[in-house]
Design brief:
Helices cover 25% and strands 28% of the residues. The protein is an alpha/beta fold. Strand 16, helix 11 and strand 17 (335-339) form a beta-alpha-beta unit. The model has no long low-confidence stretch (mean pLDDT 96).
Length: 343
């Protein structure tokens, strides 16, 4: 008997993506949840994996996508936290629970991760099957295009809940892409004054609309000099949301300040002069994906604490997933959404 099929965006290797038929995944274990996917937002991981040469490595034949929202349509016999009909979002990183880091509570550093959307079939398909521990309910009245942003928000919260800004402090965010804008919104909500640095005039304008206090063009302005002039001493926190600007971020913070390294670009090698870090006693923080921050991300979205919905610039149907990826790759939008099933 043939299995039921669905449409899915499949990585074919060498930057190639194909929307084609795949078997609908079936519940195999008692802890699994089958989700009818409504929306998926395109992440830098998706564009990086489809770049040539790739910035991230995807398993050929894998269904891509991991920032998603959907409706539960079936559950395994041991599932208790979600029910059929619930609107949900998904944590896309399946930790092993056995390695040193898992057993010491640092699940985001698991040595044996299976990543939904690159090493395990992802969410840019009509259906997604994942363990219950990765699934979080979100209120039914939250728009699907907003709900799927819970995953990137949860990742940024891993940084902002540990490297905190207070009212009156100054934060510099390098990069006005989706992640940089989430940093901007969260630090602005904390009461900080936020500078955003980006080479794109369009993105600098968007940063102002999203709440940034100042925007700077690093191609025509001396960012470090201007920030130190405006703050009197330097920023309290600088964030590299791009993945290769740590040396620039360090030039903007005051002595004893914090530098958050969040963006990832494995294709770029950055030369960092260690002397200023030592002389200034800068605190360097590497922050990677979500770490117990999904519940807070869901609450912030439900309570509309930040205007995260403003990030959505383009919406494409599943059959046009490759076009959506292209728009995201070119930086023509901010957050590109793929509508999978009627939302």
């Amino acid at each position: 008997m043939s299995k039921r099929q669905m449409m899915a965006a499949v990585f074919k290797g060498e930057g190639l993506l194909s929307v084609e038929k795949k078997d609908i995944p079936e519940i195999q274990n008692s802890d699994e949840v089958l989700i009818q996917v409504k929306t998926v937002s395109i992440c830098g991981t998706d564009t990086g994996g489809l770049s040539v040469p790739p910035k991230f490595h995807f398993k050929p034949g894998v269904i891509i996508g991991h920032e998603c929202c959907g409706i539960v349509v079936e559950t395994g016999s041991d599932v208790t936290n979600v029910n059929v009909g619930d609107k949900v979002v998904v944590h896309p990183n399946l930790w092993c629970g056995k390695c040193y880091y898992c057993r010491t509570g640092r699940l985001n550093l698991c040595e044996n991760f299976l990543h939904v959307g690159d090493s395990r079939d992802g969410a840019m398909a009509e259906y997604l099957n994942v363990p219950e521990k990765l699934v979080y309910r979100i209120k039914a009245d939250v728009p699907e295009q907003t709900a799927c942003l819970a995953e990137p928000l949860a990742c940024v919260l891993n940084a902002t809940t540990s490297v905190k800004a207070h009212p009156g402090q100054n934060v510099v965010v390098f990069g006005a892409g989706p992640i940089g804008m989430i940093f901007t919104m969260l630090y602005k909500a904390s009461g900080a004054d936020v500078f955003v640095v980006d080479i794109s005039e369009k993105r600098r304008q968007f940063a102002l609309e999203a709440g940034a206090d100042f925007v700077l063009n690093p191609e025509t302005e001396d960012v470090g000099k201007i920030i130190k002039a405006k703050t009197g001493i330097g920023a309290d926190i600088a964030v590299d949301a791009v993945g290769f600007l740590s040396d620039q971020a360090i030039k903007t913070v005051k002595k004893g300040g914090d530098v958050v390294l969040f963006g990832i670009n494995e294709a770029v090698n950055v030369k960092l002069n260690q002397a200023p870090v030592v002389f200034g006693e800068f605190n360097i923080h590497g922050k990677f994906i979500a770490k117990g921050t999904f519940p807070l991300a869901v609450k912030l979205i439900e309570d509309k604490k930040i205007p995260i919905e403003k990030l959505v610039s383009h919406v494409f149907p599943l059959e046009s997933a490759a076009e959506g990826i292209d728009v995201a790759m070119k930086g023509a939008g901010i957050k590109v959404i793929i509508e999978v099933t009627g939302a």
